[in-house]
């Protein structure tokens, strides 16, 4: 997600004579706060920010006041109490199309591998998951929370799957809220000797650069991350020049069919 996004940011910045400083919070509140203070002290022209995942609901007042003094464009995640411009995708529609695709392939027991629960990104994707099931009149639903992380998804599948296998709660398909978690699940299933897609189908969200290099190549929902990076810079430059801007720019997603989903025959 972020590698393509940063490339889009850099390309537009270079064309307009701006340098780019990239800092990574690793979804850490402490790191994010420290970097925001650093950027403010350096008097940067503007900031493109993806908020650390646990902070959307309660952003510290000190850092909120700093943000209000800077030119800010958000990507993907919102901040309560701020009307800052944001560039995002239609997370609800993307998740809905992922689950609808699994349903058309005959799956009726579809597990949701959730991201960070507090983020609106995860909440919208979960709503899309539930709405698609409701539309199909399917009551079976189950989720594991893996915080958008590959290693957490791997550990959760390794831990929970043997328990699910000995119950009637075993899903036939898994919708992961991002590709990293889907790849973590692929790794876990390989260790557990569960075949993908013969024994379980998996669909991700993002279409990160190496998602087609997995085994099996990952079916996923693509976000136009490069274009999102470009649009974020274009919006920020207008903000710097005090020009009229859209407060919210929303991109649509696209289903990318590969080999990690197969038809489920009862």
Please render the helix and strand layout as text:
Elements: H1 2-15, H2 29-41, E1 47-49, H3 61-68, E2 72-75, E3 86-89, H4 91-104, E4 110-114, H5 120-135, E5 142-145, H6 150-165, E6 173-176, H7 179-191, E7 201-206, E8 219-222, H8 225-240, E9 248-251, E10 254-256
Parallel strand pairs: 1-2, 2-3, 3-9, 4-5, 4-6, 6-7, 7-8
Antiparallel strand pairs: 8-10
CATH superfamily of the largest domain: Response regulator
**What is the count of helical runs?**
8
Structural domain tally: 2
How does the helix and strand content classify structurally? alpha/beta
Helix content: 40-55%
Describe the structure using short key phrases.
266 residues, alpha/beta, Rossmann fold, 2 domains, four-stranded parallel beta sheet, 41% helix, 15% strand, elongated, DNA-binding, repressor, transcription cis-regulatory region binding, LacI/GalR-like_sensor, Transcriptional regulator LacI/GalR-like sensor domain-containing protein
Question: In words, what does this structure look like?
Answer:
This protein is an alpha/beta fold and about 270 residues long. The chain folds into 2 domains: about 1-90 and about 225-250, Response regulator (Rossmann fold, 3-Layer(aba) Sandwich), CATH 3.40.50; about 90-220, Response regulator (Rossmann fold), CATH 3.40.50.2300. Helix content is about 40%, strand content about 15%. The chain contains 8 helices and 10 strands. The chain has a 6-stranded mixed β-sheet, sandwiched between helices. A 4-stranded parallel β-sheet has the order 1-2-3-9, with helices on one face. Strand 4 (about 110-115), helix 5 (about 120-135) and strand 5 form a beta-alpha-beta unit. This is Transcriptional regulator LacI/GalR-like sensor domain-containing protein. Keywords: DNA-binding, Repressor, Transcription, Transcription regulation. InterPro entries: LacI/GalR-like_sensor (IPR046335), Peripla_BP_I (IPR028082). GO terms for molecular function: DNA-binding transcription factor activity; transcription cis-regulatory region binding.
């Amino acid at each position: 997600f972020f590698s393509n996004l940063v490339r889009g940011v850099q390309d537009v910045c270079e064309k307009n004579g701006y340098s780019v400083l990239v800092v990574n919070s690793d979804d850490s509140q402490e790191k994010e706060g420290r970097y925001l203070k650093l950027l403010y002290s350096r008097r940067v022209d503007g900031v493109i920010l993806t908020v650390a995942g646990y902070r959307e609901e309660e952003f510290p007042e000190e850092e909120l006041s700093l943000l209000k003094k800077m030119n800010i464009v958000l990507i993907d995640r919102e901040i309560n109490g701020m009307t800052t411009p944001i560039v995002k995708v239609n997370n609800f529609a993307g998740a809905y199309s992922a689950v609808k695709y699994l349903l058309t392939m005959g799956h009726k027991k579809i597990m949701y591998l959730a991201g960070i629960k507090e983020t609106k990104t995860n909440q919208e994707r979960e709503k899309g998951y539930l709405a698609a099931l409701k539309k199909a009149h399917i009551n079976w639903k189950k989720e594991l929370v893996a915080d958008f992380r590959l290693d957490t998804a791997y550990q959760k599948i390794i831990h929970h799957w043997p328990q699910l296998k000995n119950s009637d709660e075993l899903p036939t398909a898994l919708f992961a809220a991002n590709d990293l978690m889907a790849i973590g699940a692929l790794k876990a299933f390989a260790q557990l000797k569960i075949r993908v897609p013969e024994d379980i189908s998996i669909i991700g969200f993002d279409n990160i650069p190496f998602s087609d290099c997995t085994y099996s190549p990952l079916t996923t929902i693509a976000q136009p991350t490069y274009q999102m990076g470009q649009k974020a810079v274009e919006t920020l430059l207008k903000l710097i020049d005090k020009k009229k801007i859209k407060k919210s720019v929303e991109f649509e997603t696209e289903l990318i069919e590969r080999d990690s989903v197969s038809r489920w025959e009862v």
